Amino acid sequence: MRKFEPKLLTTHVGSVPLVNPEEACDLVLENFPKIPAWPQLPKRSFLENMYVQFSERFPGRVLEEERIYVDRSQDLDPGLEQLYVAYLENDLEYGATSPDYAAGLVAFVRRLMSLGHKPIAVKGQVTGPISWGLSVVDQERRPVLYDDVLADAVAKHLRLKAAWQERELRKICPTTIIFVDEPYMSSFGSALVPLSRDKVITLLEEVLAGIQGIKGVHCCANTDWSILLETSIDILNLDAYAYAENLALYPDKVRAFLERGGIIAWGIVPAGEEVHKETRESLLEKLHEAIGLLVKRGVPFEEIIEASLITPSCGTGSLPVETAKRTLSLTAEVSKAMRERYLE
Fold it and tell me: Is 336 helix (H, G, I), strand (E, B) or coil?
């Protein structure tokens, strides 16, 4: 049994290129009324950069001239002790994200509570431990993920961030979806990024264990999809516009994932300038081609349709506003067309 019936509905990855939180909420609710996600606003402030946004209270964190790093030359033990005590006591307030770091989240919760809007589910997102740990470096520019103590701390820190956010979103709706965003999973297997399969799974599962509701992973590049399909996620969100062929290399893993109640969120609408070359019809054709790749390898078409969401391929925070708006509106159009064809 699935925790949630996706019914070819749609949501978005998170970031939008607006700076006004209220306008960002309007854009989200216009396109994704059934499963809205709170908008991250990276153009509003450096504090809403996806790595800075979830960095508050991490031991040794330094923000300096739009740079984030961990200063390992200082004594990190007091900060690590505070983090581990909060983790052991499940102190969600330790994982709180301040309004300056997530103005879109504050506006989103306030707006939906005031409107009395009752979506089917609400979505949030947190940066994953692999991407956070590879992007945030120490004072010598070495990724903190390569320090075993700090890597474990990163996962526990982000677990509290995800759990606190989920609690906030439940003020709006009892059905919550939290995505762990892992763009750097594309680096797995590279000789330049020496990460073991076991370490990736262990760190991801630590964060996922803090999520009580529906949990997903978003990766907007190619990776070893078998790793993510074997974790405890309920939703796999991929850039299906560019990497559907790569997912189809794992038909047995996909079938097992669907059989245990998994959902595929097809990022079929490109979050980039390519979107201006696409139409609803061209993207519907591309989505059917992506699904067809799995069907040819023995995954039943009906099972895929029943277990599908539609999303953009990635966040839109770095795009021109008009490009982002087209990306989001086309996502809604593709979902509507698919639902009319297969559900109505």
Answer: helix
